[in-house]
Write a structure and sequence with these properties.
Number of strands: 4
Largest sheet: 4 strands, parallel
Mean pLDDT: 95
Number of helices: 9
Order of helices and strands: EHHHEHEHEHHHH
Shape: globular
Low-confidence stretches: none
Structural class: alpha/beta
Strand order of the largest sheet: 1-2-3-4
Distance between the termini: 43 Å
Radius of gyration: 18 Å
Amino acid sequence: GMRAVLVSSRPYADSGATIVEELAWSIASGLEYVRKLVEAGFSVDEAARQIVFAYAVGGHFFAEIAKLRAARLLWSKVLNASGASPEAQAMLMHARTAAFTKSQRDPWVNMLRGTAESFAAAVGGADSIATSPFDEAIGPSDDFARRIARNTQVILRDESNLHRVADPAGGSYYLEKLTDQLARAAWAELQKVEELGGMSRALQLGHVSRAVEEARAA
């Protein structure tokens, strides 16, 4: 009942990568894991069911919702091309509020950021969500900060009723269009990574680090 492989986009997102890069590189990493598992004797379906994805959710509210939706679309497309069954194409997704967006100087504002990011993660369809304490950027969190982080999700659930709607963003033209745009852009970056020989090779060649530096500088 456990999954052995984690694909986390947080190192990229928390370093300042764009949403498109975060999507492309996480999917490329997942694809590399699938290939390695298949080489080890797993079927494509078995390999896919060993993987869970973890995404950082940042401050661009609608773009982050679209990002999570695009991730599922891209993963399904990749697995479909790899011969996986429709059932195995479902992505198991964990989301966590981003560290890149949090302030040390005025930590109280981080409560608002964490709330918006948790809300976006829920609307975007994450299977599980972790809300970071508002003082995380300063050091070890105290009991009050951890309680606020937990209660953020309780309030969103009980006052916004997010758990009662299967797909809150479904049918929104704006979000559907944004999802499609992000998915297409991420697919183009994924193809670049594949041309380089896969995600490991892209890391070794410095493609990823250069792109992150450019995005962070911008």
